[in-house]
Specification:
The structure is a homodimer of 271-residue chains. The first copy, chain A, has 271 residues and is of the alpha/beta class. The first copy, chain A, contains 9 helices and 8 strands. In chain A, strand 1, helix 2 and strand 2 form a beta-alpha-beta unit. In chain A, helix 1 packs parallel to helix 2. Chain A is globular, with a radius of gyration of 18 Å. The model of chain A has no long low-confidence stretch (mean pLDDT 93). Chains A and B meet through strand 6, helix 6, strand 7 and strand 8 of A and strand 6, helix 6, strand 7 and strand 8 of B.
Chain lengths: 271, 271
């Protein structure tokens, strides 16, 4: 991720790496099925993190050449290791900050960015920086979540409270956990053409056990990851926290349901 | 709709008829594309209202025979008129209450129900009543909204307040405007087999003007329809109301976005 190590709300632990990998594989089809780059195209992946999306991207477009960048050397090492382990050869890695990309103008045919903007204090500036790297007519693709989309049964105000803790902490760190709904204006404000946004909803009930597991391992795990910070900052007392987390797990029981919406957006640099 | 005339939160005015017709045509493809009944099948549509879904259903399955029922004679007259005007001949109408359907057991091959359960004090009982009318192996289809799914930019707590007024009023009248997320447990609790729920998300931004218009004419119009009741019941003061409605319209401007999720569910009566 393109955030300084201390400003990435989810941390960079091994459990977090596992969570990100799990997330990427479960959601791969839903989020990636309509992203394919032609052979010979030069693609920049910004904020590849531990490579969770990189392996999917590179496999789906085996003839394209990827340059995947991240600000964290530690994450890049994991990404490199993973890509090597999977025998993927069309990716090179480079350490870089989204605001200071070390490439010349018009270097890439396409840019791909997943789960980055939510962590940035100035997402619009980052879009402008990325646009410079893109050749005229080239495409840019963003995928972001929006925690305001979490909808579940049984509903619970304590569950919403613990989700709001993450939203609050992310905002304090300069990010925005509700950014999915903002992709439209960010991309049009940055001057991209042919902007198209499509929401992708993940829905879990007992008939879809893999999504129920995903909901536990991805969403609830992510919320649980900010427990100490949330309590330390007095955003919530520990009793409400435990109740909220319990209520989230309650939605994964037999009669429960859970929905979450991701937003995918594409645009072109004007010719 | 299968609600006594005084318990239907949206009322039965001409503007409301127009709203329901507009809603049905805009959302037809998204909600109906995967509902087709084979020639010769006997289909019961429960709570046809003014016939907004009826014409779509009947056209999509021209060989099926529909019986469409509603509790309101006034709505049925409008539905009959509309169906006749469109030259549709495979629908007969009958006045009936969902809790006391005037048919023998196992009469129908399929049942279709749209935007009814949200208005019922005992949706589970209604499912059991409908199941009796269905032959073993026959299918039932439900479509419901969930106002908790409304997500928009710019976000606004006043806009959420006015939406919550409708949720509150509907609950006071015995209904549940957050029922979409409950289709899974209602159908499994009623004993339907092979239950499958799929959310359908409507997303509006400036690049999709027909959805922005739909959002104004369907969703905001629906909220505006309970203004007097909400203020009379002191759920909100008039200043907050006006601000909330203004903020909802604000999401239909150039940089705004709006999402709403419908839930469609199908199941079978056990053989």
């Amino acid at each position: 991720m393109n955030c300084p190590p201390n400003s990435y709300v989810h941390g960079r632990s091994d459990r977090e790496t596992e969570r990100l990998n799990y997330q990427a594989s479960k959601l791969a089809e839903m989020l990636h099925h309509d992203t394919r780059y032609p052979p010979g195209s030069r693609v920049l992946e910004v904020a590849c993190g531990v490579g969770a999306q990189t392996t999917i991207l590179a496999r789906n477009s085996p003839g394209a050449d990827f340059v995947s960048v991240d600000i964290s050397r530690e994450s890049l090492l994991k990404a490199k290791h993973r890509v090597a382990e999977e025998g993927i050869t069309n990716v090179t890695f480079r350490q870089a900050d989204v605001y200071h990309l070390p490439f010349g103008p018009d270097t890439f045919d396409h840019i791909f960015v997943c789960f980055l903007l939510e962590h940035l204090p100035d997402p619009l500036l980052s879009l402008k920086c990325m646009m410079e790297m893109l050749r005229p007519g080239g495409t840019i693709t963003f995928i972001e979540g929006d925690h305001g989309s979490a909808l579940f049964f049984p509903d619970s105000s304590d569950a919403h409270t613990v989700i709001d803790c993450l939203v609050h902490l992310q905002r304090e760190m300069g990010g925005n956990a509700l950014i999915g709904r903002e992709l439209w204006h960010l991309m049009t404000d940055a001057g991209f053409a042919k902007v198209a946004v499509s929401p992708r909803i993940v829905y879990a009930d007992e008939s879809r056990p893999e999504y129920v597991e995903g909901m536990k391992n991805i969403f609830i795990a992510m919320i649980e990851g900010v427990r100490e910070q949330a309590i330390a900052r007095c955003l919530v007392d520990s009793e409400t926290w435990e109740k909220g987390i319990r209520d989230l797990y309650r939605t994964t029981e037999q009669d429960g349901t859970f929905c979450y919406t991701f937003f995918k957006a594409t645009g072109n640099k004007e010719l």
